[in-house]
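Thread: Modeling a multi-component assembly for a lab meeting

Hi all, long-time lurker, first post. My supervisor asked me to bring a structural picture of a complex we are working on to next week's group meeting, and I have zero experience with this. I have the sequence lines for every component (106 residues in total). Could someone generate the structure of the whole assembly? Inputs are pasted exactly as I received them:
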Amino acid sequence: MTRAVVLVAAFMTCVCLWSAGNAKRGEELFNKMCTGCHGLDSAKEGPALRGVYGRRSGSVVYDQATLDRWLSDPTTVKPEADMAFRLENAAQRADIIAYLKSLPPK
Ligand code: HEC
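Re: Modeling a multi-component assembly
Sure thing. I ran the full set together rather than chain by chain. Output:
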């Protein structure tokens, strides 16, 4: 009985961690996929991304849902968006967003 409860709790924790994304994996993905165009603290072709979570840009606020849409197709967030990158893998999007969220402010 107790063991079943523990198992269920462990399972739920796994599911939550998974759906919330994994910042460690996100960091690796970010370094592979994003740093060609983005620095954390310096603008390259795209803007610096530290603190982008919660940032307001025009009428858009970059929260979990907006960032997820942005990474799947930026033009669904801003029709005029000019970012030549799409990430179709939802788990990878969640990992990268978890990483962006986890960055301490500078
Ligand atoms: C080919 C270059 C390129 C790549 C690769 C790229 N971006 Fe971008 N990104 C841009 C450009 C350019 C903009 C500015 C677009 C605009 O405002 O129209 C942008 C904008 C953004 C914004 C909006 C920031 C703001 O303040 O408005 C976010 C968030 C973002 N990128 C995240 C990412 C992430 C995360 C990755 C990697 C998964 C990534 N980008 C990969 C070029 C790129």
